[in-house]
Design a protein that fits this description.
The chain is an alpha/beta fold. It has helices at about 1-15, 45-50, 70-75, 90-100, 130-140, 175-195, and strands at about 20, 35, 60-65, 80-85, 105-110, 140-150, 160-165. The chain has a seven-stranded mixed beta sheet. Helix 4 crosses helix 5. It is globular, with a radius of gyration of 16 Å.
Amino acid sequence: MYLSICVASWPAMRFLFRYKAFGKEHLPRSGGYVLAANHTSNLDPWPLAYSIVFRRYVRFMAKRELFWFPLGWVLRGGGSFPVERKSLDRGAIETAVTLAQGGSVIGMFPEGTRRTKGLHKRYEARAKPGAALIALGAGVPLVPAAIAGTDRLAKLGPFRVRYGPPIPLDDLAGLNRVKAARIATERLMEAIGELEATF
């Protein structure tokens, strides 16, 4: 299913949304890593991962509420796994750490929800430490990215993605887990903001 979705979406990404990705040289060629970006649309996972989906398995955390039939079947088939947003879901973190250590790319949106949506917003978009906890726990790179255009579907605005160099984490090795994750998250969000400013 993962490869089928990749192939089926190629015409739309290439011609309808005129997809372009920048900074691909910053993405590790092998081994697992955490790829974290801003979040403005339900479509964000696809442009974030699209430049590498044909050669790497990208696994996304998705809110547990989405795993109803048949959508849950599609999400699992595409490599996603559920996360509980009301609290720190240690089970989801452990799953992601194991997958990253096994060589998968873990797609994350540190803010946990879209920044704007509809009239009723249940969860506030603010940075959470999950992406940093996974990268630190798995001992893999934490790569920032920024996405633009997915919130302008009606205008068929072009999809743009920019990847940045991995966040420095080596100096956090001696700190306790909570403090290290907080500092790493601050660095990550600053890097994402700088990438967004380039659009």
